Amino acid sequence: MGLATAVFLARKGYTVDVVEKNPDIVENLPKGRLHFHEPTLKIQLARVVKSGRLRIGLPQPKPFQSCSLIYIAIDSVVQGAWQMRLASFEQMAHWLGERKTRHKRTVVLKSTNILGFADAFRELLHQQPFGDTLALTVNPEFLREGFAYEDTAAPWRVVVGADSPRDARPLIDLYRSVHPASVPILRTTCREAELIKLGANVYLSHRLAFIHELADYAREAGLDIDRVRQGIGLDGRIGLTYFDPGLGFGGSCLPKDCHLINSRELGTTFDFLTARTALTINQRLLDDLVARLDSALQGLKDRRIALLGVAFKSDLDDTRGSQAVTLARQLRRRGARVLVHDPYVDSAAVPGQEDIRLALSLDEACRNAEAVIIGTAHSRFRRLSANTVASLVRNKLVVDYFRILNHARWKRAGFRFL
Questions:
Q1: CA 68 to CA 14: how far, in whole Å?
Q2: Which of 2, 237, 243, 285 is deepest in the core (most CB within 10 A)?
Q3: DSSP classification of residue 223
Q4: Is residue 104 within 8 Å of 135, Cβ to Cβ?
Q5: H or E segment at 207?
Q6: Domains parsed from the chain with CATH numbers
Q7: Residue 342: band (very low, low, confident or very high) from pLDDT cuts 50, 70, 90
Q8: Between vectors from CA 363 to CA 358 and to CA 365, what angle results, nearest 5°?
């Protein structure tokens, strides 16, 4: 997330120009208004805006000519098609390389890209009159959504990809000035940095796919996945972090990177089977759930289903890549009437899925429902009253793949878990 980097560097005393093409965002950021839910980042944004060290504006050549470090953090991939937005990078290369400057500039690719893209972008730069005077680096970010500022301020590691020590030096010097010596800074080639980013996310995807598949088997066999998860994760080589069952993995990063690592756009032919497997398990999880619901309700046509949560991750408002959205779409295709309630998504419909309507309240979503599905593990759903929900629904069937409900209490209220 480029904004988290900009705010953090401004907090550390640097002057940062943020260039954004969306005029609404440009208008709201100087007022401390974020266009997404990220509490700590919002607080820090307000502070640096007041300091004057963070300047925000629409695209124009001047900032690109005057800054010594230029971060590119644009949305690099067309969702669904999983192809690079080459036109955006071509325009960026034109702005960067059309004018001669007195000082050396370093271009920092933070956007997640397909393997070999840095080489392709370097060629775009070299097509410009002064593009060959720019140093190109790849600096992937490893951020948890919802904690972007925290992870930027205190990273597990910093990766600087450059094809010469001289090109890497300005970026390494910057990070040494803002991070303690205990933060590892790893210098690699550009291609190695690209593979580190994609490889890390494919690993996390595969780890999540594994626990989701294990939980699915436990449900079929009538086993307690909580105890199974503990017994596996207490092994120090495995651990319990990023090892929670749910509806599958989503978001703007993990599904995308599982596709990008197998991109053929730049001639890569290696086939990462782990990436394909993770995506397959992700989809099978929903297919099997729909089949179970169909069997339990003796058909899905005209069945009223309450879906609680459509954000891809708990306590966020981001629905990109959400498994809950995919589930709602699949249920609707089977004729079900899906009512969604999400305390963080406040638009009239799920962004990009205007046919999925949001109920105004939890009561509205659950009233006369024949099944209640936890779609997102929002913390406030943990406090749901089983008796209150029981008084609203027509049929006491509940789906809680996240295991956030007190199952014993809900069973005493007459609910059956699918």
A1: 12
A2: 285
A3: -
A4: yes
A5: helix 190-221
A6: 2-188 (3.40.50.720), 202-417 (3.40.50.720)
A7: very high
A8: 35
> Do the bridges between strand 16-19 and strand 54-57 make them parallel or antiparallel, or are there none, so unpaired?
parallel
Distance CA 240, CA 262 (A): 28
Give percent above pLDDT 90 in the chain.
70
Q: How confident is residue 331, by pLDDT bands cut at 50, 70 and 90? A: very high
Whole-angstrom distance, CA of residue 407 vs CA of residue 185: 45
Per-residue three-class SS string for 291-360: HHHHHHCCCCCCCEEEEECCCCCCCCCCCCCCHHHHHHHHHHHCCCEEEEECCCCCCCEECCEEEEEECC
pLDDT at residue 67, rounded to an integer? 85
Among residues 273, 270, 292, the alpha carbon closest in space to that of 281 is found at 273
CB 322 within 8 A of CB 250: yes
CA–CA gap between residue 314 and residue 405 (Å, rounded): 14
pLDDT over threshold 60, residue 258: yes
Query: What DSSP element (H or E) covers 77?
Result: strand 77-78
CA dihedral (119, 125, 129, 132) positive or negative:
negative
**Does residue 101 have a pLDDT over 70?**
yes
